[in-house]
UniProtKB/TrEMBL annotation:
Gene Ontology molecular function: any one: peptidase activity
Keyword Cytoplasm on entry: no
Protein name: Acetylornithine deacetylase/Succinyl-diaminopimelate desuccinylase
Lineage per the UniProt record: Bacteria, Pseudomonadati, Bacteroidota, Flavobacteriia, Flavobacteriales
One GO biological process term: proteolysis
InterPro entries named among the record's database cross-references: Cyt/Met_Dipeptidase (IPR051458), Peptidase_M20 (IPR002933), Peptidase_M20_dimer (IPR011650)
Gene3D superfamilies, alphabetized: 3.30.70.360, Zn peptidases
Residue ranges the record marks as coiled coil: none
Keyword Hydrolase tagged: yes
Source species of the chain: Flavobacterium omnivorum
Length: 462
């Protein structure tokens, strides 16, 4: 596979330009205003798979956004790798904080990416990482080194909960049959230290609505005499954590797996510098659950966070008003063994029970998913580690991530296969934030590393 390096060098400008074209389409799944762009992106992904050399590609209609499916079956008796990725992206706002428009990709140098990074919404999450797989396939087909069968399943609803993908997977078990699922939609420790994500957190996402009086009121005439829904909501939310930053919902921790001290000591070996972490975020200190360090708080521990809160008057100047309603969107990140539906129920029961007289509370569940952990002794993990070792010169470190890809647990349940998370993004790439970017180094290194995964996976499967 010496040739992959040469192939990437020879074609890198084209690889970058092709990705840039894909990034120009604003495939925002959260906002129906972009539904035409969703369709156009699915078409572009389909065309790219055909060009790379798949011998069958189709757009699969679903109750929601289409799924692009492609395959190259060279011999049914050989193993099959199923590549999953998503072509939808997060909304770009707040747009005014972008230093260049989110859907006009440009390459800029940064301290962490001295050779340049592509700035655009979706560059890292996940169009750039997904497209590495398309280019790796192109290489393997061009060089006649594809050692097994490959299937691609690229969806357009990951950022809004993958509802249609669940529908699709349940109905297409035979078509999606595989020996391992390969995903690049996570990160790694640094460009010098690759890592393989061995865990993802689950998620329960809810919206709450607190209603007081039947209309907005004059805050002088009524203030002090009726419950103010915003005051009440703030107090209710504050009560969801105690002084040690433990979550106070009864039963919330019942199924949380406690890691042994040995496992925690193992985790602590991964390189991490607290001062740099604080500096990167302009924080004067970190924060979180007592008894755990930063890298535990954001991976092996469950959390509860308000993602948005609104109500009352937020326009120019001052308006004296007691709002009729207050709202918040709340996410709970869960660890493996916590069941997201049960947690949603526990939250709903608790949150309604702490509502004081004078208001009514409504909890609307949004979406969720189970967490995931995978062992490091599987063939897939070993193959990924061998691939990284070869291209980075050092072995990968297993890391449990704090993010969620809820469909991964469903893959294991429905398709009975393990997922290997070979991520090439960095935490500093600002996914979901303004100025999202993906390093050119990371993009090209991904394209180089992926064919080696196939090679070693097939070797180890023999
Ligand atoms: N690619 C991310 C998840 C991720 C990023 C995992 C980095 C690990 C490291 C994915 O697109 C994502 O954003 N997932 C959502 C969940 C989804 C249900 C909206 C998340 O984690 O908030
Ligand atoms: Mn993603
Ligand atoms: Mn995302």
């Amino acid at each position: 596979m010496e040739n992959i390096k040469a192939y990437v060098q020879e074609h890198k400008d084209r690889f970058i330009n092709e990705l840039i074209e894909l990034l120009k389409i604003p495939s925002v799944s959260a906002d129906p205003a972009f539904s035409k762009d969703i369709i156009n992106t699915a078409d572009a992904v389909k065309a790219s798979l055909e060009k790379a050399g798949c011998d069958f590609v189709e757009i699969c209609d679903t109750p929601g956004n289409p799924i692009v499916y492609g395959e190259k079956i060279i011999d049914p008796s050989l193993p099959t790798v199923l590549v999953y990725g998503h072509y939808d992206v997060q909304p770009a706002d707040p747009i005014e904080l972008w230093t260049s428009p989110p859907f006009e990709p440009v390459i800029k140098k940064t301290e962490i990416h001295p050779e340049g990074a592509i700035f655009a919404r979706g560059s890292c999450d996940d169009k750039g990482q997904m497209y590495m797989h398309v280019k790796a396939l192109e290489y393997m087909i061009q060089s006649n080194t594809l050692p097994c069968n490959v299937k691609f399943m690229i969806e357009g609803e990951e950022e809004i909960g993958s509802k249609s993908l669940s529908w699709f997977v349940e109905r297409n078990q035979e078509k999606l049959k595989n020996d391992v699922i390969l995903i690049s939609d996570t990160g790694m420790i640094s460009n010098q230290q690759p890592s393989i994500t061995t865990g993802l957190r689950g998620l329960s996402y809810v919206e709450v609505e607190v209603t007081g009086p039947n209309r907005d009121l004059h805050s002088g005439l009524y203030g002090g005499a009726v419950a103010n829904p915003i005051n009440v909501l703030a107090k209710m939310i504050a009560s969801l954590h105690d002084e040690n930053n433990h979550i106070t919902i009864p039963g919330f921790y019942d199924n949380v797996e406690e890691l042994s001290l040995d496992e925690r000591a193992e985790m602590a070996k991964a390189p991490f510098n607290l001062e740099n972490y604080k500096k990167a975020l302009d924080l004067n200190d970190v924060y979180g659950e007592k008894g755990y360090v930063t890298n535990e708080r954001n991976s092996i521990r469950p959390t509860l966070d308000v993602n948005g809160i609104w109500g009352g008057y937020t326009g120019e100047g001052a308006k004296t008003v007691i709002a009729s309603k207050a709202f918040a969107k709340i996410s709970m990140r869960l660890v493996p063994n916590q069941d997201w539906e049960q947690i949603t129920e526990l939250f709903t029961k608790h949150f309604t029970s702490i509502a004081p007289a004078g208001v009514t509370v409504l909890v609307k569940p949004h979406h969720g998913g189970q967490g995931y952990v995978t062992p490091i002794d599987s063939i897939g993990y070993k193959a990924a580690n061998m691939a990284y070792t070869e291209t980075f010169g050092v072995p990968a470190i297993p890391v449990r991530s704090g993010g969620s890809i809820p469909i991964v647990a469903l893959f294991e349940k429905e398709l009975k296969s393990k997922t290997i998370l070979m991520g090439f993004g960095l935490d500093s790439d600002a996914i979901h934030s303004p100025n999202e970017h993906f390093g050119i180094f990371n993009y090209l290194k991904g394209i180089e590393t992926i064919p080696l995964f196939y090679k070693y996976f097939v070797e180890l499967s023999k």
